[in-house]
Write a structure and sequence with these properties.
The protein contains six helices and no strands. 77% of the residues lie in helices and 0% in strands. The longest helix is centred in the first third of the chain and has 31 residues. It starts with a helix and ends with a helix. It is an all-alpha fold. The protein is globular and about 50 Å long. The protein has one domain. Keywords: Membrane, Transmembrane, Transmembrane helix.
């Protein structure tokens, strides 16, 4: 990439950090709004799915806020990467099992197969986005 392209990308780095932070805070809050929807996507081999939903929700909120604060941005970005890796089994489970989401609108109850499989490489994109702030 040339210097002009890099400076254009760098110009968006700060606003995208706030966008990412808000995205994770909203996602984390949703863990408390519809916990049963999240609990249903946790693979059966994991114990206490509801507890895991609440813990991951807290983590998303804390890390989302943390990535928006310059002082904690690096640590929070590493935490987001770890969280994305930790929740990957749930995404694989959703893609490979006939999961029906509980307590969501009928349009969201059964996500399309394409959307579920596209979600897997999207984890890599989200990890790369968080990595940008490490």
């Amino acid at each position: 990439m040339n210097a002009v392209s890099l400076s254009t990308i760098a110009r968006f780095k700060r606003p995208l950090r706030y966008a990412m932070g808000v995205l994770y805070v909203v996602a984390g809050v949703m863990h408390f709004v519809v916990p049963s929807a999240y609990a249903g996507v946790i693979p059966p081999l994991f114990p206490q799915p509801l507890t895991l939903v609440y813990l991951s929700g807290i983590a998303e909120i804390v890390l989302g806020v943390g990535v928006m604060v310059q002082r904690t941005q690096r640590l929070a970005a590493w935490g987001l990467i770890a969280l994305l890796v930790a929740v990957f089994p749930a995404n694989v489970y959703m893609a490979t099992s006939d999961v029906v989401l509980a307590d969501v609108s009928p349009a969201l109850k059964t996500p399309s197969t394409i959307a579920l499989w596209l979600r897997l490489p999207m984890q890599g994109v989200l990890i790369a986005w968080a990595w940008w702030y490490t």
